[in-house]
Write a structure and sequence with these properties.
Layout: H1 9-22, E1 27-31, H2 38-42, E2 51-54, E3 57-61, H3 64-82, H4 88-98, H5 104-120, E4 126-130, H6 134-171, H7 182-204, E5 206-211, H8 215-230, E6 234-243, H9 250-269, E7 275-279, H10 290-299
Parallel strand pairs: 1-3, 1-4, 5-6, 6-7
Antiparallel strand pairs: 2-3
């Protein structure tokens, strides 16, 4: 489930997970949104490991900051095996600074999400991901391609260095180094994991976009749909949330007229995708409302 911040992705993702569990699937609901309100909605203490919500349904909230710290700690530990001791302090300082650098948290989040999704295939029938707001989600979904090219380049450079080192050793009459190279092995493992994540996203994932019938969310959803399609990902339903009921109240009538215009626009510009309309509830949605929302998602064919 993707979409602009504040449109109700968490509620829709939880309702969809509830629907799948009711159908008899073993379901894992994963939140990558830094706000992490999934546990609050479901009334459970969710964390970085699966927590049981009800029979056949678990929830997990990925802690991106914690994942970034583990990511950097792992790189530091690996560096200690291959970097000269006198260089290690500088490497550690660089990695500490990297925690605050753009891209580090996204890369770590992708690693953790890859672990979750690739391992989930042996434990669960379906995985529902409640994503962060649109821009963050789009970056996350294209990262496997971007990082795969970067890792491939590093691997080529590493192999070039090893060839030159072997040539120099031969010229100096020294014995060549063993063929096994821990750095190259780690790079290949990283490359293969990214490729597996990319195949999973392209072959098995469907991105349903949640929006409300207002100008900015509609415009952002159109851009997100186009970016996802261009990235080779499947876009599913447009889940239009918070649709006002018909009524005679002047405020509702005025809002209803505005919504009607945006609902027509949604049908016009996003009409090649299934559309699901969910009502604007009279109260803040809670766990007790998920069955009703799940029924509406099921009636729409999800």
């Amino acid at each position: 489930m993707g979409g602009k911040g504040g449109v109700g992705k968490t509620t829709v993702a939880a309702a969809y997970a509830n629907l799948l569990a009711r159908r008899g699937h073993r379901v894992l609901l994963v939140s990558t949104d830094p706000a992490h309100s999934t546990g609050d909605l479901l009334g459970v203490r969710a964390g970085d490991e699966p927590t049981l919500v009800s029979p056949g349904w678990w929830v997990l909230e990925v802690d991106a900051e914690q994942a970034a710290r583990r990511h950097v700690d792992r790189i530091a530990a690996e560096a200690a095996d291959v970097v000269p001791a006198e260089v290690l302090p500088a490497v550690r300082r660089h990695l500490a600074a990297a925690l605050a650098s753009p891209g580090t948290v996204e890369s770590a989040l992708l690693d953790r999400l890859s672990d979750v999704l690739l391992e989930a295939t042996t434990h669960y029938d379906r995985v529902v991901v409640d994503t962060a707001p649109t821009g963050h989600t789009l970056r996350l979904l294209v990262l496997p391609d971007l990082l795969s090219g970067w890792v491939e380049g590093l691997l080529r450079r590493r192999q070039d260095v090893l060839r030159k080192d072997a040539m120099l050793r031969s010229m100096a009459g020294e014995e060549p180094e063993p063929d096994a190279d821990p750095v190259a092995e780690r790079l290949r493992a990283r490359r293969d994991r990214l490729a597996a994540m990319r195949r999973l996203l392209v072959n098995d994932a469907v991105v349903h976009l949640v929006l409300v019938p207002e100008r900015l969310p509609v415009a952002e959803t159109v851009r997100a749909r186009d970016a996802l399609v261009d990235g080779g990902l499947r876009v599913g339903a447009m889940v239009v949330n918070r649709v006002f009921p018909d009524g005679d109240d002047p405020f509702l009538a005025a809002r209803g007229v505005q919504q009607a215009g945006w609902l027509a626009t949604i049908d016009d510009v996003l009409g090649t995708h299934p559309r699901v309309r969910l009502p604007h509830l009279a109260r803040d949605p809670g766990r007790d409302d998920l069955d009703e929302l799940a029924d509406l998602l099921a009636a729409a064919g999800l």
